[in-house]
Amino acid sequence: MLTLSNHAREQAQRRGLPEAIVLSVARAPEQRISVRPGREIRQSRIAVPAGGTLYLVRVVVDMDPTVETVVTVYRTSMIDKYWSRR
Fold first, then answer.
1. Hey, which bits of 1-86 come out as E strands?
2. How large is the C-alpha radius of gyration of the chain?
3. Nearest-angstrom CA–CA distance, 39 and 62
4. Closest to 41 (Cα-Cα) out of 25, 55, 23
5. How many other C-beta atoms can be found within 10 angstroms of the C-beta atom of residue 56?
6. Could you report the per-residue pLDDT of 25-61, keeping only the tens digit for each?
7. 84 backbone dihedrals φ, ψ, rounded to 5°
8. What global pTM score does this model have?
9. Most exposed among 27, 37, 55, 61, judged by the fewest C-beta atoms under 10 Å?
10. Where are the domains positioned within the chain?
11. Rounded to whole angstroms, how far apart are CA atoms 4 and 23?
């Protein structure tokens, strides 16, 4: 099960990211980066708004055996800085 924290919802709204994009990246990211046990950054390159500027949308997810919680989300134009080449 995947849920969004209140903080993640607020940050998505503040940053102009539709909840559907946040959930899409969380469920099917282009990349997953382990931060520590139980936490991942899931990221995808997305044009925001559709057809607009290409951004990297990064979704921070806390994982436990029964639920995954999106704790925050943001977008950045600095794709090269965060994109994993591994």
1. 2-4, 31-36, 39-48, 53-63, 68-76
2. 12
3. 5
4. 25
5. 21
6. 999 999 999 999 999 999 999 997 778 899 999 999 9
7. -80, 130
8. 0.93
9. 37
10. 2-82
11. 8
